[in-house]
Amino acid sequence: MPPLWGRLTMERARWAFPCGRWCPGRAEWLLCARCVQPEEKQRIGQFMFTRDAKAAMAGRLLIRKLIAEKLTIPWNKILLERTAKGKPFLANDIAPQYPNFNFNVSHQGDYAVLAAEPEHQVGVDVMKTDLPGSGSTEEFFRLMHRQFTEREWHSIRSMGSDWAQLDMFYRHWKYISAVSMCLWFQALKESFIKAIGVGLGFNLQRIEFEVSPINMETGKVYTQTKMWLDDERENWSFEEMLLDNQHHVAVALGSAGTDKSQHSQNGKLSGTSFTVLTYEDLMASAVPMTAEDPDYWDKFHSKQEMPCRQSTKTAPNTVTS
After folding, report:
1. Per-residue model confidence (pLDDT) at position 133
2. Most buried residue, 180, 204, 292, 301, by CB count within 10 Å?
């Protein structure tokens, strides 16, 4: 008799966890640490601020929840590894009918998010609209001008108020802090780059987006945005959703194969709304894999939430999962 997970119908997943509002106590944090692989626990423990540690922990737990519940591989048997470009992947053998099953996570602002697909390439990116850390909006845009195409700047500048322009800017763009340097990427662009797994070396100037609609309602999924690669219209689909009035999430969906016509033959994928999970939802299938480590809580509890100099007006910070 074939294993149960081989007879299930794999469904796509769209999950969001509000890690920014998560204030884990000792028991919660130590349980989470027991439910991720030791090397990931160690990596999470190296973050300087609890904000980043919580986001990274949530990302790893979202992945394990996905695999345990959608593929029914036991939580403590899941083996996660990373590609050379840093994209997490499932190292276990999976059901033969899901050879293209893949997932992606992102965390920034107050949320960690996950998107998963049984057949299509997928990339996800979340960002928070916020005021520039210093200087005027005009100066901020001047510094960033070379990073956008004229069509994209027209979309940004067509918005009425400074805040509306910033909102459209951050819809295209997100800020990533990595070690000792800052890199900027468009949210839609990064979701595409993450989906194909090519990492930071890809020339983002080759990609251009026509963002639609201009205004979005919280909780509604939009699929009208179009992409050009090297001035050629691509068959990728994009889902966009506002988790709240500041957090925008973009999902890139591509064909599982190399044939561009495959995606268009299947038709445009319908949008899928993100489900916001509670801590109880996140840990519903969790199984501890290691012994409790009291020092892990002590080290976490002794850290600051975020840098003292950071305020709500600084550009958002993203940590990789």
Report:
1. 61
2. 204
Q: Return the structure tokens found at 40.
A: 């990931």
CA 13, 229, 88: angle at the middle one, nearest 5?
Answer: 35
CA–CA separation, 160 vs 180, rounded Å?
35
Which residues of the chain, if any, have pLDDT below 50? 1-8, 174-185, 258-267, 311-320
pLDDT of residue 125: 86
Instruction: Enter the tokens of residue 78.
Output: 């899941």
- Residue 17 identity (one-letter amino acid): F
Look up tokens 């519903």; give the residue: 284
pLDDT tens for residues 112-133?
Answer: 999 998 888 888 888 887 766 6
Q: E strands within 38-157? A: 80-82, 88-90, 102-108, 111-117, 121-128
As given in the structure block, the two tokens for residue 48 are 């300087």
Helix axes 137-144, 162-172, angle to 10 degrees: 30
Nearest to 250 by CA among 317, 165, 193: 193
Residue whose pair of structure tokens reads 């204030």 in the numeric block: 23
Q: Residue 221, class by beta-carbon neighbours within 10 Å (0-12 exposed, 13-18 middle, 19+ buried)?
A: middle
Residues 280 and 27: beta-carbon distance below 8 Å: no
Q: Residue 153 has which token pair?
A: 């700047």
Instruction: Kindly report whether the peptide bond that precedes residue 213 is cis, defined as omega within 30 degrees of 0.
Output: yes
Sorted by sequence, the CB contacts under 8 Å of residue 292 that are 6+ apart come out as 30, 34
In the numeric block, the tokens 């800020």 are attached to 175
Distance in angstroms (rounded) separating the CA atoms of residues 37 and 289? 8
| pTM of the predicted model as reported, rounded to 2 decimal places | 0.77
Tell me which DSSP letter residue 318 carries. B
Q: Output the CA–CA distances (angstroms, integers) from residue 280 to 34, 69, 286, in the order listed.
A: 16, 14, 10
Contact between 249 and 241 under an 8 Å Cβ cutoff? The reply is: yes
SS3 for 196-208, per residue? HCCHHHCCHHHEE
- What are the helix (H) ranges across 161-292? 162-172, 187-196, 260-266, 279-282
From the list 23, 13, 6, 28, the residue with the least C-alpha distance to 65 is 13
